[in-house]
Specification:
The protein is mainly beta and 152 residues long. The chain has one domain. 9% of the residues lie in helices and 30% in strands. The strands form two sheets. A five-stranded antiparallel beta sheet has the order 6-5-4-7-8, with no helix packed on it. The chain has a three-stranded antiparallel beta sheet with strand order 2-1-3, with helices on one face. It is globular. The mean pLDDT is 94. The structure holds zinc ion.
Length: 152
Amino acid sequence: MTDNALWPFEVEQHITAMSKYYAGKIGSRFYITLRDEGKIMAVKCPRCGKVYMPPRETCGPCFYNMKVDDMVEVGPEGVVETFTQVHYNEPVIPREAPFVYAVIKLDGADTGITHYLGDVDYENISIGMKVTPVLENERQGNILDIKHFKPV
Ligand SMILES: [Zn+2]
């Protein structure tokens, strides 16, 4: 047996799988409100008061099952909690590198959302920087209805 026998056998292939994803009641309200009204909706746990952005159905600390009626508007402004610059392209990421990802905690929320930062040079970004969303004019009902966040 030679060393070549230890190399993995690889087959290059391309798989296309069509699918639809149901965002759930809370996720659907989030995307519809963003698309139709340009507002960012979080969900507030009525039991412990934690405000989730992005919204979710189950509260982590108290396991309360939140409803659409528990949703509250947050932001639109927020602060940068952390950030990084991406230097490579990935087929699933619809933005050309280099670009900046940031975790942004919107005003009124207790958790942060990951999104793009734009209209700013990387050297000028800092943790705690106040930012505001830039919305698409023709919104489709997905997270890219927020083009990016930019400094206030
Ligand atoms: Zn809770």
